[in-house]
Amino acid sequence: MSGDARSVSGDVLRRPGAGRGRRIGAAIGRALWWSAAVFGLPFGLLALWWVLSADSETFYLPPLSEILASFDDVWWHSDRLRADVLPSLLRLAAGFLLAVAVGVGLGVLIGSFRRVRAFCEPVLEFLRAIPPPVLVPVLMLFAGFGNTMKVLVVLSGCVWPILLNTVEGVRAVDEVLAETCRCYGIRGPARLWHLVVRSASPQIVTGLRQALSVGIILMVISEMFAANNGLGFTIIQFQRTFAVTDMWTGILLLGLLGFLLAMLLRLFERSALRWYLGLRHSQRDDGQR
Amino acid sequence: MTRAATVPPPAATAPAPAGRSGGTGRPRGDTALLGLLGFAAFLLVLELVPRLGLVSANYLPPTSEIAVALGELLGESRFWTAVADTLRGWFLGLAIAVALGVVVGFVLGTVPVLREFTASTVEFLRPIPSVALIPLAVLLFGTDLRSVLLLVVYAAFWQVLVQVLYGVRDVDPVARDTAYTFRLSRWARIRHLLWPTALPYLLTGVRLAAAVALILAITAELIVGAPGLGNEINRAQSGGAVDTMYALIIVTGLLGVAVNVLARRLERAVLSWHPSVRGEGTR
Fold it and tell me: Which of A52, A103, B66, B263 has the fewest Cβ atoms nearer than 10 Å?
């Protein structure tokens, strides 16, 4: 998206003698263009959905207006936000953070030592290839139906992308930087933090992004299986009782949550990887101009 | 998915497939031996843990028992039907998603206005977890194959689309200017400029999508109840056949490994001309 925004602004900048009025006009035009680009299609699609479903008689596809109208009642004016959404989010957060700790810790260890890596890699490849939802029944055996099981399910799925990306990132630490560290006698925790983790961080963040989407999926699935609260449970409950409109609000809410969490992670990425994004930006521009 | 990146790594113009042995002139045999040793140790631990009573054998049967259950499964036609069902859902879903992703990706990628106007929508729809569609799939299609396909296509499509979008954007400026200078037609530009540039990205997308598609196919079977391995796992679990359940899980893992290996093979075969693949051989 940013690439195109640049080309638009480039047009404006190329007019050398533009007066103040024209510049303001151009700025307004640019803002209009930008907001049209960002909001045009989503609102267009929503409008289309609204119109097409307006007098829908199909039981499974209620009018959008009805869905939106009941959204408030289903989620906001009831206890569900506290009783269902909050526990879901807490489980997700717990599982995700545990996965980060385990994944980055083990990943740095495995990535740093060639023999450890050779020893572990085939097993890891195999474990990672097992579709995570399949482990839900297994973990149900071990940990029952409680919160522990759900946190473990999220952990078991999230840990692989983080772990494997960390291993790759640690492996790819710049040789020159590593040598420099050795020359200056930087060792131990300082080396770990400033060289290894820092160099691996772009890869780690990629792992986090993948882990987040897996985590949300697993959170919902574990609740669909066996739970008495949570988003997944509630949505399945709506589906089983044929409360189709309510079910649709649940789908919308899940989508919204997925989107918000992804945005949150991106904010984190922007601040944590500022050095790297800047570096990449300058490299890209060099290549292009 | 080892070095999986939705955003391809910056240093390499193309997502270089990670060499399995890790590259620089190490004795391969050494690595392979250690790996085998690791696997043996893993199996041994799984055998010993229940035997020593650290974990109840009701929850985690020893490896040998799982192996026996696996052997029994291999003789059952029911098991093979389930495998075939799962693979069918996986393959059909993946094929549809890749076709859609390529077409939509190229159209959006080559028309700047379209790309600009769809970017926010793509960004919004992509993080929507595909499981949100499960209740809808159940209501619309029941335990039909179409339920599986709905979920698989939705999840795999974004992987392909985003990679193609990145790939189309990555055209080398010099090559692009050259193409303009030689007045290549639109079609020729797509054929000789865009396609080779985007191909490595596309294949990374296919590899990611293949893994995701398998996960969702099995998930759909597990939760929706469509016929296939996931459904068999559910049956084994509720029937108390714990060793069969583990055997089935191992099968899904093996399928996953097979899918990954196949996708990598495909990548190498299709990209044999590409520096990222050629480079590995000369090293």
Answer: A52
Three-point CA angle A287, B206, B248, nearest 5°: 145
The amino acid at A195: L
Q: Write down the pTM of the prediction.
A: 0.79
d(CA B234, CA A163): 28
Distance spanning both ends of chain B, measured CA to CA: 23
pLDDT bracket for residue B99 (50, 70, 90): very high
Residue A279, Cα to own-chain centre: how many angstroms? 23
ipTM for the whole predicted complex goes beyond 0.95: no
Instruction: State whether residue B62 is helix, strand or coil.
Output: coil
Q: Which two tokens stand for residue B189?
A: 């530009």
Chain B residues within 8 A of A4 when measuring between CB atoms: 112, 115-116, 119
The Cα A212–Cα A209 span in angstroms is: 5
Residues of A in contact with B124 (CB under 8 A): 42, 259
R_g over Cα of chain A = 24
CA angle at B105 for the pair B100 and B109, rounded to the nearest 5°? 160
Percentage of chain B modeled with pLDDT above 70:
87
B25 at interface of A, judged by CB pairs closer than 8 A: no
Specify the length of chain A in residues: 289
